[in-house]
Amino acid sequence: MSVLDHGLTVGDGVFETVKTVQGRPFALTRHLERLTRSARGLGLPDPDHDEIRRAARTVTDATPLPLGRLRITYTGGISPLGSDRGDNAPGLVVALGEVSRRPDSTAVITVPWTRNERSAVAGLKTTSYAENVVALARAHGQGASEALFANTVGQLCEGTGSNVFVVLDGEIHTPPLASGCLAGITRALAVEWTGARETELSPEVLEHAEEIFLTSTTRDVQAVHRVDARELPGAPGPVTAKAMRVFDERAGDDLDP
Ligand code: PLP
Predict the structure, then answer these.
(1) Which of 32, 69, 125 has the most ligand 1 atoms within 8 A of CB, as the residue to mutate?
(2) Alpha-carbon distance 184 to 131, whole Å?
(3) How does pLDDT run across 79-132, given as a tens digit for each residue?
């Protein structure tokens, strides 16, 4: 990839992080479909799924890891910005890193910055993650591992790299995609497997929800034991613990051969 690739210089790129278990990618088809949706959102040509699958196989075969993460980055190459991309070659990098098993629970903060649900790139997984980097740095500075955003109309949206779920009166809720959150693969599975509802939520629910949890490729389902100054003793609570169990039981369901 050129050092002038616009994926590096201006964030003209899209990406996926895919969990691997014993070298087998989890939910790869869903990830590749989302990569294509994100690419189309940026006007990039459709990525070649077979090429990415081959590259993924090459790196997972080269480095056997019990638990890993594939980072697939697909970029605009070096065509003049905003022009017809013509036959400019897009950039593709597939890399594998190790992940350690995440703790069962974590602390999160809320941040005053907003996700723009009406942005041209809302819901796309682009390489422009600077906003997330700033928010995550604030979280780390406060002993937390994630920062939660509201959107421009004051609804709860998502974390820097995760989706958020709350338990209210024993029922699981998560913000709808219209909130501007990413269509998380883990979020979709959690909705499917737990019957969670998509509900417009005010960030104030974080002050009284019985339980809160996050979902992402690298966290799976992770309970929240502190949100800002509020402690949630006993996290994971019973509903979150059940969601975690469902995930553990079904996590092998969609592994690539
Ligand atoms: N929201 C954002 C902004 C993300 O970057 C991610 C993950 O990378 C997620 C949510 C969770 O998505 P997934 O479950 O597909 O990892």
Answers:
(1) 125
(2) 18
(3) 766 666 666 788 999 999 999 888 999 999 999 999 999 999 999 999 999 999
Question: Is residue 14 a contact partner of residue 124, using CB atoms and an 8 Å limit?
Answer: yes
> Hey, whose CA ends up nearest to atom 9 of ligand 1?
162
The model's pTM is 0.96
* Amino acid code (one letter) for 180: G
Predicted confidence (pLDDT) per residue in 125-157, tens digit: 999 999 999 999 999 999 999 999 999 999 999
Ligand 1 mean position to 177 CA, how many Å?
A: 12
CATH class of the region 105-253: alpha beta
| Whether the Cβ atoms of residue 223 and residue 213 lie closer than 8 Å to each other | yes
Residue nearest to atom 4 of ligand 1 (CA): 161
The alpha-carbon radius of gyration of the chain (Å, integer) is: 18
Q: How many angstroms does the Cα of residue 106 sit away from the middle of ligand 1?
A: 17
CA angle at 172 for the pair 170 and 178, rounded to the nearest 5°: 150
- Using a 10 angstrom Cβ sphere, with 0-12 exposed, 13-18 middle and 19 or more buried, the burial of residue 252 is exposed
Instruction: Give ipTM to 2 decimals.
Output: 0.99
Q: How far is the CA of 151 from the centre of ligand 1 (A)?
A: 16
- CATH class of the domain at 6-98: alpha beta
**Residues 232, 226 contacting (CB under 8 angstroms):** yes
Per-domain boundaries in the chain: 6-98, 105-253
